[in-house]
Amino acid sequence: MAPLRLDGLPTEIKQRIIIIGSHETAMNLRQVSRSWKRVASEPFVYKAIMENRSDVSWSTIPLSRNAPWFSWVRYALADSRAAELATLTDEYEKTRTVTLDTMSPPSLALSSFFNEKTYNWIPQLMASQHPTLYNTFKALKSPPDGVEWRNEDSSLLHAYSVAFCYTLKVLSHTTEKDSIISDKLPLLLSRTLGQPIQIWVNPVLVSSPPMKERIRAMTVISTFRAELRKQGLREAFDTGRKTETVADRLLPTTQSIPFQKLLSLPLPFSPDTASQIVDCHVSNMATASFFEDGEWLGSYFDYDPQRKTEISVLRMKFSTSTCVGSPDLLKLKAVGRIHMAEVSLDGVFSRSRCQFRATMVQQHWQQSTWDFSLLPCGLAGLRIHSQGSWLWMYKADWVGS
Among candidates 383, 381, 377, 379, which has minimal Cα distance to 393? Predict the structure, then answer.
């Protein structure tokens, strides 16, 4: 009986051999022969490799069945990096020492994850609710010490990626630990940018680059969400029973925001991932149909770290019109109610900047001016001439009933 050649194995056996291995094995087997190349180029093979790696199913991979095989390879590689990061984080948590003033620094292996290339795969997995990465909390908490950025634009891109990941993390989880670490975000971003991020002080009439405004707005949302959660936990502890907080009922979560429809994510490990992440929501969200479709809710709050955060809920409906001769601009008008009072909003939105300044009128007499930034999690607006008045607006169908 002639020996069975590896190349002569049935296709089903070849697929099983590949699936129990890694994506590196699959890539190597593509070089063996034409038949192995054909089998190892099937997208479902790499999906099965990722599912075989963990007991937790990653059901929100942002790829269709018809996506090219190399797209699946990129996500399989990112999945393996997340597993490696989780292992290093677990080892660090077991060996670290904590004092009243300091905490032992991360290991060299863990620190190596935090460099200029770190965030060319983490944002994609965070936006796709990767189960391993979401549970690797320490990884997103560690600051990128010792990183030297090429220029200011590079540091801004990295800071936005950090804020993007932090916000998705805070909007996803509802534990006290997640709330507490969000307090570290302004400090982490300040170190990354080399300048302070002051989220509750309004630099009146001092213009900032659109990127910095988006970073600050993203930071405010995550900090505000976590602060409300902490207040709810304190109330639950004081009363001795579970308390459904405002944050639980009225604010969107990572699971409720349809990121797969809203974000055009670049493939992991793309050389220009950082710049693409910044604008990955623009094509689907900076449109007239997005603003006009459905009702919007808004959480109006005055953020002050020294006192309890209070919010008022706003309901609005947008209408749009084009600016003749300016395809980049879109006129926005909205009418609605805040509690029992009528309110209107009027401004001009810039698609390229993802920002607009709007005038809000309440009950035909109280008028205020706001600077809004369009983010993947909605609109975040800072009231001009205030000391920390913010408005976070999001689609009504992003929250529960």
Answer: 379
Q: Can you tell me the distance from the alpha carbon of 94 to that of 87, in angstroms, rounded to the nearest whole number? A: 11
Residue range 285-305: mean pLDDT, rounded: 85
Asked if residues 309 and 228 have their Cβ atoms less than 8 Å apart, the reply is: yes
Residues of the chain with pLDDT > 90, as a percent, come to 18
Q: Quick: pLDDT tens for 369-400.
A: 998 999 999 999 888 877 678 889 999 999 86
Q: Is the pTM of this model over 0.90?
A: no
Q: What is the pLDDT of residue 146?
A: 43
What would the pLDDT profile of 65-104 be if each residue is shown by its tens digit? Answer: 788 888 888 998 888 888 887 777 777 667 765 444 444 5
105 backbone dihedrals φ, ψ, rounded to 5°: -70, 155
Buried b (16+ CB within 10 A) or exposed e, 262-277: bbebbbbbbeebbebb
Above 60 in pLDDT, residue 210? yes
pLDDT in the model for residue 93 = 67
Measured distance CA(122)–CA(133) in Å, rounded: 8
Tally of residues, the chain: 401
What pLDDT digit, counting tens, does each position of 189-203 carry? 665 565 556 555 554
Q: What is the CA radius of gyration of the chain?
A: 24
